[in-house]
Write a structure and sequence with these properties.
It is built from 7 helices and 19 strands. The chain has helices at about 1-10, 15-45, 140-145, 165-180, 225-235, 300-305, 310-315, and strands at about 55-65, 75, 80, 85-90, 90, 95-100, 120, 125-130, 140, 150-155, 160-165, 185-190, 220-225, 250-255, 265-270, 270-280, 320-330, 330-335, 335-340. The longest helix is centred in the first third of the chain and has 33 residues, at about 15-45.
Length: about 350
């Protein structure tokens, strides 16, 4: 197109001036495009560099790992924070998942009694034992699972390669959750990194990457909440709930309510995290982790919806807590100081 204009302009009077003007205009346009592209690349690069200055905001008062998606928590004093999520040897966060026979996963949203399935690990963190009301305990040799051929399962419409944990635990879960001898199975995620892409609904968050997706997590491998935010919600409820009802990995004491909304970078112990998205809340937070019963008054979700909605990022779902991606792996201990980037 530009070459055509050059050719046409050379046939008339003052063609040299027109040609020069076009050349200058084209050069300016190209330079502008290159400059804008370079600016965007540099901006993105700088946004992903941790800050050099930090300010103290509080300390870690609770650390939780949820080995089975939607099931009970294990409170620990120390964890290793890897890209796949919190871990203590083979005890890892959301590394197991309950599925139906067609491979699709289930959660506590539809099966609230899942929270009553309580995992625990032996001292070597290699054998997981499950307990539940009215059921005999059942154990799983986690190390053995790494040698089993993988099968496909589905989480939020995304196919993942998992390992089936066998008939005994499948029957155990089916009996407890369905009162049937079959219908559910337990699968295990044997990989060290995530192979899932960012879910379509979460692509609006520029700092969220596939690396942050975790094992079998909904969105990211780490979630943090503050004691003050939980207390502020409780002040509006007739029946207060514990932080565990929101299923965080980290609970932090010190910041004011909802201060975590504005954090960009977080440092805890040896680790550094990026705030990649706010944690949007669904009906699962209405399930009492002690009883496995969902609130008949739809609380605390109902109250949160009255003042914690941001349609741009959560639609109709309210926000409480923040979801993080680990940028520097390491150890986190109970009582560690929490810093945020200045």
């Amino acid at each position: 197109m530009i070459s055509k204009l050059f050719s046409e302009s050379s046939t008339g009077s003052g063609s040299g001036n027109v040609r020069n003007a076009l050349l200058v205009a084209a050069g300016v346009g190209v330079a502008t495009l290159i400059g804008y592209g370079a600016y965007r690349c540099l901006k993105k690069h700088l946004e992903n560099i941790p800050p050099k200055e930090w300010r103290r905001v509080g300390e870690v008062t609770d650390i939780n790992i949820y080995p089975i998606k939607s099931c009970g928590a294990i409170r620990v004093n120390q964890i290793e924070c890897s890209v796949i999520g919190p871990r203590v040897h083979l005890m890892r966060d959301r590394i197991f998942m309950v599925i139906q026979t067609d491979g699709t996963f289930i959660t506590g949203r539809a099966y609230p009694r899942m929270v009553l399935v309580q995992p625990k690990f032996d001292e070597a963190y290699e054998t997981m034992t499950l307990s539940a009301p009215g059921m005999l305990d059942i154990s799983i040799d986690v190390r053995r699972l790494f040698a089993i051929e993988s099968v496909s399962a589905s989480v939020w419409g995304q196919t993942v390669a998992t390992v089936d944990c066998g008939e005994d635990v499948a029957r155990w879960l089916s009996r407890f959750l369905l009162s049937e001898d079959f219908g559910l199975r337990l699968v295990f995620y044997p990989h060290e990194v995530s192979y899932r892409e960012v879910r379509g609904k979460n692509k609006i968050f520029p700092h969220l990457t596939a690396r942050d997706s975790g094992a079998l997590h909904d969105a990211t491998s780490y979630m943090l909440i503050t004691e003050a935010s939980v207390s502020d919600v409780n002040a509006k409820l007739e029946k207060p709930v514990t932080a565990l009802q929101y299923r965080p990995n980290f609970v932090v004491k010190g910041p004011t309510a909802y201060e975590e909304d504005d954090w960009q970078w977080i440092k805890i112990g040896e680790t550094i995290y990026r705030n990649v998205k706010p944690c949007t809340r669904c009906i699962f937070i209405n399930v009492d982790p002690e009883t496995g019963i969902s609130s008949t008054t739809a609380e605390p979700l109902k109250t949160l919806k009255t003042y914690r909605r941001n349609p741009k990022v959560g639609g109709d779902n309210p926000i409480l807590g923040m979801q993080m991606g680990v940028k520097k792996e390491g150890t986190v201990r109970l009582g560690d100081v929490v810093y945020v980037g200045c």
